[in-house]
Amino acid sequence: MQLYISAPSALASTTVQRSISSIERIDEWMNSNRLKMNADKTQLLWLGTRQQLNKLTVTELQLLSARVSFSTTVSDVGVLIDSQLSMSDYVASRCWACFFKLHQLRQVRSSMTKEATKTLVHRFISSCRIDYCNSLLYGVNDSLLKKLHSADSSQCSSACCDRSQKIRSHLTGAA
């Protein structure tokens, strides 16, 4: 379940109370339909500018049977969302995953045939998920996009069979 509520920072306490009341009603409905809400897995996130977030005094709330603190970053369908919607945590996690897999590939590359390496590179590029939910990156800072591009370029050029060859063939089909 996801709940989105918009309110000015001055009304944060009132908004939190209304939210708790709504969540309690949803929990009652779920219980009546033999469903269970897991408050322990609940993530809360305030969204706003740095100045707006600094005005907030509510840092946690009692939600059903659990005390839940507000986070600076939450995960939604595998995408890390931060409180300012800058997407910097998401980009950092994607880049880290790509460079980690690239490091693993470099360690075994010398003991593999050229064909096996090509196959592994193709699989590596698709498993890195660098383009997963990339529409969410519309309008983000150019430096974040450059980081993603760097990770994408590195995985293509550094993972090739012989060091002089650049692997862009996964896009063109050329050998």
Offer a quick outline of the entry.
The protein is mostly helical and 175 residues long. It has helices spanning 12-32, 50-54, 88-109, 114-127, 142-158, 169-172; strands at residues 44-45, 60-63, 66-71, 73-76, 79-82. It folds into 2 domains: 9-71, no CATH class; 87-172.
Set down the secondary structure blueprint.
Blueprint lengths: L11 H21 L11 E2 L4 H5 L5 E4 L2 E6 L1 E4 L2 E4 L5 H22 L4 H14 L14 H17 L10 H4 L3
Parallel strand pairs: 1-3
Antiparallel strand pairs: 2-3, 4-5
Helix pairs in contact: 3-4, 3-5
**Radius of gyration over all CA atoms, rounded:** 22 Å
Integer count of domains? 2
What structural category do the secondary elements indicate?
Answer: mainly alpha
Q: What are the low-pLDDT stretches, counting only 5+ consecutive residues below 50?
A: 161-172
Strand content: 5-15%
Average pLDDT rating: 80
The secondary-structure element order is HEHEEEEHHHH
The largest sheet is: 3 strands, mixed
Number of helices: 6
Distance between the termini: 48 Å
**Strand order of the biggest β-sheet:** 1-3-2
Assign a percent range to the helix content.
40-55%
Quaternary state of the chains: single chain
Report the principal-axis shape.
Answer: elongated
**Tally of extended strands?**
5
